[in-house]
Amino acid sequence: MRKINILKAIVDLIWIFSMPIVLVILGFSIALFFVDLGELNIKINSVNFNSDTLFSKTLLVISALNYLLIIAALYFFRKILNYFIRVKIFEETVIKSFKKTGNLLSVSGIISLTVSMISKIYFDQKIALEFGLNQHLVIICLGLFFLILSEVFKIAKNQKQENDLTI
Predict the structure, then answer these.
(1) Model pTM score
(2) Which residues contact 109 (CB under 8 A, 6 or more apart)?
(3) What is the signed CA dihedral for 18, 2, 97, 12, rounded to 10 degrees?
(4) Domain, as residue range, for 127
(5) If 0-12 CB within 10 Å is exposed, 13-18 middle and 19+ buried, where does residue 102 land?
(6) How many domains is the chain built from?
(7) In Å, what is the CA distance from 152 to each residue of 86, 101, 137, 149, 157?
C-alpha cells in the first residue's frame, strides 16, 4: 500500500505544478495569433517553431493544446488512484477512468506524432523515416495499455459479481 501512496503523491505533485501551466497555455494560445513571434525560438515536443506564418502558429497552438489532453488524462489517473487507495478497485468509475485516460493518451500521442511529422516536412523540408522508440510512440502505447486495463478490469468486475452470486 505504501507504493500506491508514493505514486499518488508524485501524481498529485505533477498535477499541482501543471495547473499554472494550463493557464499559461490557454493565454499563450489565444495571444499567439495577435503577437509577432519572429524573434522567438519555441520548442514543444522536440519540434522547433521558428516561423511566423499562420500554419506555424496553428501547429504551435495544436501542440500546446495537446498538452491539455495529457493533463486531462492525468486528472483521470488521479481519480483511479483515489479509488485504489480506498480499496474500491472494481468500481465502474475506475473502469471508465481507465478508458478515458487511455483514449486521451492515445489521441494525444497520435496528434503529437502527426504534428511532429508535419513540422519536419514544413520546417526542415525533408521526409525522414526513423525507426526506434520515441516519446510519441510511448504515449500511444501507454494509452493502449490503459485501454487494455479498462477491458481487464471490466472482465474482472463481471467475474467478481459472478463469484459473489455463487455460494
Answers:
(1) 0.84
(2) 136, 137, 138, 139, 140, 141, 142, 143
(3) -10
(4) 2-165
(5) buried
(6) 1
(7) 20, 15, 22, 5, 9
pLDDT in tens, the chain (167 residues): 789 999 999 999 999 999 998 888 888 777 777 776 666 666 665 566 666 677 777 888 888 889 899 999 999 999 999 999 999 988 999 999 999 999 999 999 999 989 888 888 877 777 776 777 888 899 999 999 999 999 999 999 999 888 887 76
What number of other Cβ atoms are within 10 A of residue 152's Cβ?
12
Q: Which amino acid is at 90?
A: F
| 38's grid cell | 519572429
C-alpha cell at 74: 492525468
52: which 3 cell numbers? 511566423
